[in-house]
Write a structure and sequence with these properties.
Layout: H1 2-21, H2 34-38, E1 41-42, E2 50-51, E3 58-62, H3 64-70, H4 75-78, E4 85-91, E5 94-99, E6 110-114, E7 117-118, E8 120-121, E9 126-127, E10 139-146, H5 150-153, E11 160-166, E12 174-182, E13 187-196, E14 201-212, E15 227-239, E16 244-264, E17 271-294, E18 297-311, E19 316-330, E20 336-352, E21 357-359, E22 363-380, E23 384-395, E24 399-413, E25 416-427, H6 431-435, E26 436-444, E27 451-457, E28 465-477, E29 482-501, E30 506-510, E31 513-542, E32 545-560, E33 579-588, E34 593-602, E35 613-622, E36 628-635, E37 641-642, E38 657-658, E39 660-668
Parallel strand pairs: 6-11, 27-31
Antiparallel strand pairs: 1-2, 3-10, 4-5, 6-7, 8-9, 10-11, 12-13, 12-39, 13-14, 14-15, 15-16, 16-17, 17-18, 18-19, 19-20, 20-22, 21-26, 22-23, 23-24, 24-25, 25-28, 26-27, 28-29, 29-31, 30-31, 31-32, 32-33, 33-34, 34-35, 35-36, 36-39, 37-38
């Protein structure tokens, strides 16, 4: 069966290529040529608009065309096409997403923003991907920085930054609705409508809903991983003058996901498996003022309030966040482009523990104040540029953190760019690393009749994890056929998290049941290095055919300090594939028919004994009329099932990823 599928793939691409050659009236593949794509302006790398081709950072942009033709149904699935980003689906509602290593369900070195709103959770330092269910039809672009972005974006932007931008009401008009079904998941539907009230006022509304069923296991039965969400939002753009733009937006969501948990028990067999359901909900409102003072000066003031709630068998958390941020960019002389800014964030929560997860302080507020400045200096006109800057942050846990960077970019011609950078970034402590106690294992103790219970406790002295990164990159773009983007890096980490033994076991009681407590505590007793490279290549054999190739190589070694008692944390890098690559083919067979293919390979995960795998997706898209489009996507064709990650540290079971067929109907009006 596998051989037939592979042979079918070999036949499929040449066949559609020959079909394309026969269509003299076929339209161009995308809205942008290669040369135009390199002219695309991005903002994530320097907090000001600049050409992607000249950006002194390892950066990748996922465009609307990429999103539409990817066949993906979620943000994590989109990120598979970004070199240097590791994506592993754990089950139907959980993902492990990271950049340049340290992957896991609680990947804590990747900062994620949606329209400038941070969705990185201060509870465990990571992202609740199940709650980021914005409809992909409303995503304008996804800008991904691999490597530190802390000088501009602050703490936790250690190994990368993902900046998701939704469409502006000013840039879209009319309505679009998309609905369909997935044979391995279930039905889904999304819609957006936007309009112009007058010459200065624009608005849009959107809504999305889906219901993902339990994954069917290869041996029969089902995993406990169903997932459903309803989400809606709105935005208003007001051009108050030719130089002033005001934006007000917000959204609400509510969902439920099912999970199977393995928790420690004080009686044989010392583990308990429970089927549980988590309820989660939230909402946010964001206001932004943008002012263009002159062609070389602009200001932006943004503020948002965000509310999240989550409850399952392990804990219940309600969290509120208020954030305000100001930035100003100007050029005091033709050779200097300065961006500076300041901000403040207040977050407060209420945490309800359980029998498995405890906490020292049920309610806590945390303050974060910051200021940054960055200057791009022109050393040689249109050829050599130096960028230097730093961020100062003050938080309630580790107080003052300083995160500088220096970047040099050389553009000897319009087809070549060479850049290098040295940066420092920190990952500040999370609430769980300071205050939370988690029971992780139970087993018979040497003392008759007593069960040993191992728990990991928070540590009020937990420090920030630190990174010093060195990077080198090269870009090449031909106006006709080919482009390449290559980056290599060498990262040095200090004070990484470990779980250390604390004193001798002690006798404790759970009600009237005695047990032997073996406490561990979070500490910073590990260091290490990682190094590797990423490449993204794009080739246009024909106007109507485009090939994208991406590859990632990652190596690393982590080593506990001599004073550490942790024997497991040094294995953390082994949760990441050392090599992964993909090939994406986009072909317009005719003006109305698209044929796309995705093939990617992920290397083994040694720490989880997880074998490597090939993944093949095929997509056909048909523009039936000017308003109606139909797409059919076949996913995971090489196997009926494959597994991408193991069970999580909190005892959540992983599930294999099944083959699926997805049909989507899109109506524009």
């Amino acid at each position: 069966m596998k051989r037939r599928i592979i042979v079918g793939m070999i036949v499929f691409i040449p066949f559609v290529w020959m079909s394309a050659l026969a269509q003299e009236s076929a339209a161009d593949l995308t809205d942008l040529t290669l040369e135009e794509l390199m002219e695309v302006n991005v903002t994530s790398a320097s907090k000001r608009s600049e050409r992607l081709f000249e950006t002194p950072a390892a950066m990748y942009v996922v465009t609307q065309e990429d999103i539409r033709r990817s066949g993906a149904s979620s943000i994590p699935e989109l990120l598979r096409m970004v070199p240097g980003v590791q994506v592993a689906r754990i089950d139907a509602n959980k993902w492990a997403v990271s950049a340049r290593g340290f992957n896991g369900p609680f990947a804590n070195k990747l900062l994620v923003l949606i329209d400038g709103r941070v969705v990185y959770s201060p509870l465990f330092s990571g992202v609740y991907w199940d709650a980021q269910s914005i409809p992909l039809l409303d995503v304008q672009r996804v800008e991904v920085i691999r490597g530190p972005g802390a000088t501009l974006w602050g703490a936790n932007a250690v190994n990368g930054v993902i900046n998701i931008t939704t469409t502006s009401a000013r840039d879209v008009s009319g309505g679009v609705m998309s609905a369909g079904g997935n044979t391995a998941a279930g039905p889904f539907a999304s819609g957006r409508y936007s309009a112009q009230l007058d010459s200065t006022l624009y608005w849009k509304v959107y809504a999305t809903a889906f219901n993902v069923g339990h994954t069917r296991l290869p041996g029969g039965g089902r995993a406990t991983d169903a997932w459903s969400t309803v989400r809606g939002g709105a935005q208003i753009n007001w051009s108050a003058s030719q130089t002033t733009l005001l934006t007000l937006q917000g959204d609400l969501y509510s969902g439920k996901k099912h999970q199977r948990l393995r928790v420690p028990a004080l009686t044989p067999p010392y583990t308990l498996t429970i089927d549980d359901a988590m309820d989660f909900s939230g909402g946010n409102v964001l206001a932004r003022w943008e002012e263009t003072v002159s062609p070389t000066s602009s200001m932006k003031l943004q503020s948002y309030f965000d509310r999240t709630f989550r409850q399952d068998a392990l804990y219940k958390e309600g969290r509120n966040t208020f954030d305000i941020d100001f930035q100003h960019g100007f050029s005091p002389t033709p050779s200097h482009k300065i961006v500076w800014g300041a901000g403040y964030r207040l977050t407060w929560d209420k945490f309800t523990p359980s029998a498995f997860v405890g906490i020292v302080t049920p309610s806590r507020s945390a303050n974060l104040a910051n200021a940054f400045v960055q200057d791009e200096v022109t050393l040689v006109e249109q050829t050599l540029f130096l960028t230097v800057g730093t961020k100062f942050e003050y938080n309630d846990y580790t107080y003052l953190e300083i995160q500088p960077n220096a970047r040099l970019v050389l553009t000897p011609s319009r087809h070549h760019t060479l850049w290098t950078a040295v940066s420092r970034a920190v990952r500040t402590p999370s609430r769980s690393e300071r205050d939370v106690s988690i029971a992780i294992a139970a087993f018979p103790s040497p003392l008759p009749g007593l069960t040993a219970l191992v728990s990991v406790d928070g540590n009020q002295a937990f420090r920030s994890e630190c990174l010093t990164a060195s990077e080198l990159g090269y870009r090449y773009a031909s106006s006709e056929l080919f482009s390449a983007d290559i980056a290599i890096f060498y990262n040095v980490y200090d004070h990484l998290r470990t779980a250390e033994r604390v004193g001798d076991p002690t006798l404790k009681y759970a009600g009237t049941t005695p047990y032997l407590s073996i406490p561990l505590k979070f500490d910073n007793q590990m260091k290490g290095t990682t190094y590797g490279g990423e490449a993204a290549l794009s080739w246009h054999p024909l106007d109507r055919w485009k090939l994208n190739v991406g590859a990632t190589l990652l190596r690393g070694q982590l080593q506990p300090y001599a004073t550490s008692t942790d024997t497991s944390s040094s294995e953390e890098m082994k949760n990441n594939p050392q090599f992964q690559c993909y090939l994406r083919s986009f072909l317009n067979v005719t003006r109305d028919l698209e044929a796309d293919a995705l093939i990617y390979f992920v290397d083994t995960l040694p720490n989880q004994s997880m074998p490597g795998y090939f993944h093949v997706d095929l997509r056909l898209g048909w523009q039936a009329t000017s308003n109606f489009a139909l797409s059919m996507t076949a996913q995971n064709l090489t196997r009926a099932h494959h597994q991408e990650f193991g069970d999580t540290p909190l005892g959540e079971f992983a599930a294999p990823i099944p083959r699926a067929f997805v049909g989507t109907l899109t109506w524009r009006f």
